[in-house]
């Protein structure tokens, strides 16, 4: 019988630095990722608030910032998107909760490569610092948006922020790619190789499946972004012409010629679309986990859920062209990308119906994690339904680069994924920190955030359909948009209220961290392995015992069982579905 | 004293890597309080497969950029039509050919080093029994030779880049020369990573790490090294056939 020492080669550290800073323990690293993402999300949210306020009061003068110039506004757009996509939506669900929970849920004492795990966190941290540094260099942060479209991003003279700021942006992305690749490698190896005895692939919790598939997507996608970034750095600094055609900036003809901005778009979106699923898949996993646990019913169609996630991951690599309908694309290619995009609706619908089927006739416990999981489903449907609209090249001609697009992707990829993160936080907080979060504050936070999210993003669809473009810093004096100003004002106030409500979450988090009531080992009466161990788990997760798994992850409401749930480690003789 | 079980049977050397369990992994029933080197080797090889996949994606995307850029028509205002600006790089083929042979030779010596490390790891427990001697096995420094050949390859690549400069081809001369530099330098950087791993393996023998632990490092580096050789052949062919 192997003891945990055979896989857990590092002993429990004693000093502060090795225990909390350069820790090899996946649990500490997970918490580090979580707090990094929490810091990043506040930076990103404040940037978005500045944008929203600037939209309706473009002439406001701020105490420190002064007035917001068009280039400042574009820098806000760029940094908001980059921070949110990379350092929040990719970092928190996978790096944070995946790191903390995956090894415990499969019965492992740690990740497969603990040193690599530590390296990937600290590399991510360096990437974040490099990105923020772009704010403080000459010219400021870049203007080219999180998608970094060329030739704007390839020409240092194209505008303020496109000099050193853009170099820092690309470097930060490249660093993040390397960190994510190290992380993905670790997740895949851990899931395949460190499962406890009896933890077959079809007994994995859906959370583990979601992190595993996300890691595969990351492994295949981030390398492409890295290559694209290297070509961009070469165009900027070595005078090559991969992306830049013959172009004149401020009356000066650049030395580049013959390159194609479309090449960047192809490479970027080949990464960019899987990235959407990298952000949302872990949310799907945690939603499945919570809906089953709090409905006290097995997940509806476990295998279908697994295959649907695999299908979403597979199709995710085949639809990048739908971001480029308006970039000059053969109608035949556009048709193919359109059909493939709509194919993703099938596995997405399977998942949605299975979530509803899971709740159907369940004895639902409406606690905060459950509310957020239901919220996730709601946002996934609301945001997802506008996807097939944008997947039509004919409709995209009208809607491309309008506010309809940010409305769509914020609902489905932004806030739905954030709801997944909230659900995960409320659900695993007791296990991670040994205390319960406050339910009342959690519910208040949920209802304000849900209502606020819809108040911000539903009207934004109408703005888009009415022709309001995105990325424009000032439109209050544009005649045809005058009638939309009241709606824009409403959205801005909704954003201010929703962002302010996030303070409730932060207060709840930190208050509960120190003052929350002590949590039992299994406060939600859940079945998976993390709830079989102590709260918080010991250094090697299972205190020297290697768990043996006899049951699936969603054995709720089992007829004839002693309780209404059967732990995965319960004896094989225990009745199960 | 713990009972030692060899982590990898001797007849496993040179065979396909062990596959991860499909019916639930973790405990493979061996080990006791001795580190389970067999499991560690399996895990490291799995990690390596992932690393190779991602390096593969980097070069696949660079290849697609290469093909895209090569076939891209660009508008020339002076003749009012689309032209192709892809030039032909006068690569130093003889020198690159020699470099290729050096890299292939290093792959062979690396494989011999890997087999030697595997044999030593397998025989380690027998040798540790007091009074047992297996005779003096010829100790040929395959790892050291691989390091030298690897350095020779990198030096040869450096000469090739200098030769390109002498022939008037710089990174920004033409898209084709941009890609020639990019692909060869990207390969050299990845090979440099392999060199660091080789030096790590060599140092682990100096630091008297357990033979089994050293074997894992050598094994992983060897497979990575072979991948680098195959990758180089691919780049060589790409630069040769898609000029």
Written overview of the protein:
The complex is a heterodimer of chains A (about 575) and B (about 240). Chain A contains 16 helices and four strands. Chain A has about 575 residues and is mainly α. Chain A has a two-stranded antiparallel ribbon. Chain A has a two-stranded antiparallel sheet with strand order 3-4. Chain A is globular, with a radius of gyration of 24 Å. Chain A starts with 15 loop residues before the first helix and ends in a 62-residue tail after the last helix. In chain B, helix 1 (about 35-70) packs parallel to helix 5 and helix 2 packs antiparallel against helix 5 (about 210-240). Chain B has a two-stranded antiparallel sheet. The longest helix of chain B is centred in the middle third of the chain and has 35 residues, at about 95-125. The chains are: A mainly alpha (about 575), B mainly alpha (about 240).
Q: Which stretches of chain B are low in confidence, meaning pLDDT under 50 for 5 or more residues running?
A: 1-32
Secondary structure class of chain A reads mainly alpha
Quick check: average pLDDT of chain B?
A: 83
**Adjacency order of strands in the biggest sheet of chain B:** 1-2
At the first level of CATH, the class of the domain at 23-259 in chain A is Mainly Alpha
Number of strands of chain B: 2
Q: What proportion strand of chain A?
A: under 5%
Low-confidence stretches of chain A: 1-6
CATH architecture of the domain at 23-259 in chain A: Up-down Bundle
CATH topology of the domain at 23-259 in chain A: Cytochrome C Oxidase, Chain A
Give the biggest beta sheet of chain B. Answer: 2 strands, antiparallel
The SSE order of chain B reads HEEHHHH
What Rg of chain A do the Cα atoms give?
24 Å
CA(first)-CA(last) distance of chain A: 30 Å
Helix content of chain A: 55-70%
**Most extensive interface:** A-B, 60 and 48 residues
Return the structural class of chain B. Answer: mainly alpha
Strand content range of chain B: under 5%
What fraction, in percent, of the residue positions of chain B are helical? 55-70%
CATH superfamily of the domain at 23-259 in chain A: Cytochrome c oxidase-like, subunit I domain
